């Protein structure tokens, strides 16, 4: 949250409104907590939150006129109801009644305008949950679904999202750091900004290409964890950028990058990797991944600036460290994990992905999930037999290969999660790596039949539709000679993951 600036001349006219809204008597005697940000005053009662725009003039907005504040309130309501309709209740006026007193939504003349929201407990914020350990992997998956659906609903805008716009944003952040009291950290932040400006120049053509491809849209614009709240058990983004559509009209991956980066900063790499991979599986937007380090680094710079401006030097250091990590040079590799149904290959692949390469790790391409996405359903939805016809399976592997090549070309490592039962299929995976000029390693999980059957019987909420009948068919199949690294998969999940990590000859960041 931004700190409050000093009072501007127009704000003196708003003092009676502030006093009225801060008075418990205006809310039936309920206690009122007041928070002031750079552009708003928030009045929090036990069940409602009232947001009052400050009549300030800043380089990026002018809220001095009453009409401008009214318009901004309505626009903020419209934008944020796209993602959290149950949170935003409406826009009401503060009115001056005939007796000269102020009222909420009275019959008198409007003297100011408010956004009215349902109040939620601070503990429901994703930032609080991430800090306390209560933000789960399932929450990360649900957030990915919410953001992917949201981005898919937006119209492309080719007039915004240029490389120059990104350079202006980074330059503004750099200049703001001039005002930080911690000159050492500010200098590190400015060095990061310089690095990002250089990278923006290098990637200018790619940024423009994304705009031409329709990937620039009017997004949320500020998707850090402090702007995500649990509503009815689902993570919902709120408080998106409302004061400038130009600032919020960005590459959809730049929008997503804020949440991914913030999960990394909260030391939740598994969650960050899952959020990214589930979003990509839903949108198939692998083409933009070469821009991900730039986008993640810029989001980290925003938080560095914000934390330094509020004196939170320790948090600024954390975001500087994340920026260094995501901008680290990467040497992509291709890892394939195979085995019969129930062997634990998907669990192993998920465990390896966050630490394979710089944060947020490797892109995970799972055959079961790709098949579900091709059929237009969520990974957990069971498919009919027809979805497993040979022609569908061929199309699925063609898509898996295409997405792997796109991702490797973008410079990120890839993990292929499939049974890889046939020699031809294993050779195909190896050929992808050769063609892309990257290191390859295949892992094969050996598991006793009884253990396979037990795991399949115990599956819930999983993308695999494999049954015992499917497994028994696999057990009688001719697998041919398997030359991949063989892992004993009969132990506990933790033991198998440890064995898989130890067997890797590709570069991996070891978890702390």
From TrEMBL:
It comes from the Bacteria. Residues 65-289 form the Aminoglycoside phosphotransferase domain. InterPro entries: Aminoglycoside_PTrfase, Cell-binding_unc_protein, Kinase-like_dom_sf, P-loop_NTPase. This is AAA family ATPase. It comes from Govanella unica.
